[in-house]
Design goal:
8% strand, Four Helix Bundle (Hemerythrin (Met), subunit A)
Length: 165
């Protein structure tokens, strides 16, 4: 179920990428402090890649991202990478203990006990947050682009809105 939730969110992003043109993907958007949709996609993608790498070696380190600019410049490469992430997520054992490595301040690193289950949960929230940012940028600069109603909206908010109806 947790893998499926991540895959569904990644699919939302892939669907959006298929609907926008490359110049939109690479446009530095003023409402986003001149970051691009591509930069947010790279950030999302690399967090997933770090989690998958951590699954293999036992240590997740989101600070050690590759920062591959090809993801932010080449929409098709980004889609291909996201499709590969979806494939890798299928069938993994969530009950895998991990260490989360992080530097909150300065150069001192902290090692925190975690699990793949916990990291996938975090990735859902992290990805939704960045989808919401992407939505804001597109709504402000490209209002003609239709974005699905649930794009960038937290699951708890969707449930709450459905109860209010």
């Amino acid at each position: 179920m947790l893998q499926q939730s991540n895959i569904e969110i990644i699919d939302q992003l892939i669907d959006l990428l298929n609907d926008i043109e490359l110049p939109v993907y690479k446009d530095a958007l003023q409402p986003l402090h001149y970051s691009t949709i591509g930069q947010h996609v790279r950030h999302i993608t690399e967090f997933y890649l770090c989690a998958l790498n951590g699954y293999k070696n036992g240590v997740v380190d989101y600070d050690a991202r590759e920062r591959n600019t090809l993801i932010e410049m080449d929409k098709d490469f980004a889609i291909q990478t996201l499709e590969n992430i979806k494939y890798q997520l299928q069938g993994l054992n969530l009950d895998r203990n991990l260490i989360l490595k992080n530097k909150f301040s300065g150069n001192e690193s902290m090692n925190i006990s975690s699990s793949f289950f916990r990291e996938l949960t975090y990735l859902i929230e992290h990805t939704i947050h960045h989808l919401a940012i992407i939505r804001i940028g597109l709504n402000e600069v490209y209002p003609a682009i239709e974005i699905p109603k649930k794009f960038g909206v937290a699951h708890s908010t969707i449930r709450y809105q459905e109860l209010e109806k």
